[in-house]
Structure formats: structure tokens, C-alpha cells
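lol ok so funny story. i was supposed to be doing the assay writeup but got distracted and ended up predicting the structure for this chain instead. priorities right. anyway since i did it might as well share w the group, maybe its usefull for someone
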Amino acid sequence: MSQKSIIDLISAVDLQDLKHLVLIRNDVSGTECVEEGSVQMLELQEKSIVLLVPPNTCVEGHGLTLCMIRLPVGKAISRYPARPEIYNNAFEIIGKVFKIERPEKRKEYWTITVNFTQYDVALWEAFIVSYIQRQEKINELRPKHE
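and the output, tada:
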């Protein structure tokens, strides 16, 4: 029995990027983080998310609205969208900043944990599953060490 090469195991769908643009609107201060790449997902949890954000984006206890938009967006976004649903597979989450980790150097990004207060559970679970499935596919492609 011949062993399949990695080329035989990869399909066109596997090569599509699974990336999301994360936008933040601070509902307390009114500030926004909308520049692509300024907010990065670090950890997806059952009812929260850990993000890397620019300094001074928020403080503990602030209410945030997050907009998750599947990339590519197609055009630059300069403001938090009034109607996020116009974007491909976009959805919103409302949450509260539970924890902030600030590095010693003031210019570095902060790590924040946002606990969800209002969100569509089914959409969030599907979002997490999409990343889990992508990771499982990557794990399948890794050579097995005996």
C-alpha cells in the first residue's frame, strides 16, 4: 500500500485563510479600534475571549462591543460599522473587560480578557468550531513521529 503524499491530502479549501478582523468599540469612552491588525485574538473561550489590543483601549470594567468579520473584507474600514451584518459572516458580541495585563514597557500591546454579556451562543460556538477544525486539519497533516 502506497503512502499518500502531503499534496494528495491538501484541498483548495485547506489553503483558504481562516482569519477574522476584530473591531472594538468602547461603549464607555466611545473610542474604537478598527485598523486591521490592531486587535489580535489570542484565546477563544466558552464565554470570553483574550485579545491583544493597543494600550489605553480600555480599563477593567469597561463595556466593549466586538465585531468579528471574516477576512477578506474587501475595503478598508475606518469606523466601527453601524450595520456589521453587511460584511461577510460578521457578528457582534457585547462584553465587559474582566482582566488587563499591561507590559512594563508602556508602548507594547496589552492583553485583555473580555467576558461576554450579550452574544449569540450558536454563532460563537460555530466560530470556535471553525478554528478547532482548522487546527485539527493542520494536526492531521503533521508527520507522525513514532
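The chain has two helices and seven strands. The chain has one domain: 17-141.
back to the writeup now i swear
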